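User: I'm putting together a small comparison set for a docking exercise, and I want a reference complex before I start. The sequence is below, and the ligand is D-malate. Could you produce the 3D structure with the ligand included, as structure tokens?
Assistant: Of course. I'll restate your input first, then give the structure tokens for the complex.
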Amino acid sequence: MSADLGFVHRYVPGEDESGPTLLLLHGTGGNEEDLVPLGETLAPGAAFLSPRGKVSEYGAPRFFRRLAEGVFDHEDLLFRTHELAEFVQAASEEYGFDASKVVAVGYSNGANVAASTILLHPGLLRAAVLFRAMVPFEPDLAPDLSGMPVFLAAGRMDRMIPPHNTQRLADILLEAGADVDLRWRDTGHPLTYEDVAEAKAWLSDVLPKLS
Ligand code: MLT
């Protein structure tokens, strides 16, 4: 664990310095350790950069403030998204990983801040795996996400994230030109083995194509 670069975080070097780095973004109440095992399952040998969300909701770390469940503090979301983008850039200089091969893997609140980063900093992330994501904000102008691979895994019975909201996020990304792969399952908010297996297969196709 390191508190440098503005975020408490964990960095795990990859087997190949020029390989991809997974930016692991935990859900509400998680921390920088949470998704490292998931990263190891999804992309063995990749580097992992795993920050802890800086907002505390009654002690539960998050990546941005919310006013109620599913109602986001827009100003804080924008501020925290820029802060996270700066952290990723600073971390690539500090650790020497290839900044052009950063792939986000986020769950719930972590997926939402990843989606916000995609919309506000197009080009920072080469690809993204978003588990249980929703629309972070409606962009005024669609960014250019031409060809960006994005995998979304959603639950039809998710009580935190209404299905139409994930569908809207997929539509926003599609309209911006992203190559969206949206998978639906008859499941709720928690991650399932099937989600992980599908994301792993998707990544094994996408990661070798990053150059
Ligand atoms: C959020 O606040 O980002 C979503 O409601 C998901 C969550 O509860 O973390």
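Helices lie at 36-42, 74-95, 109-120, 163-175, 193-206. Residues 74-95 form the longest helix (22 residues).
User: Thanks, that's exactly what I needed.
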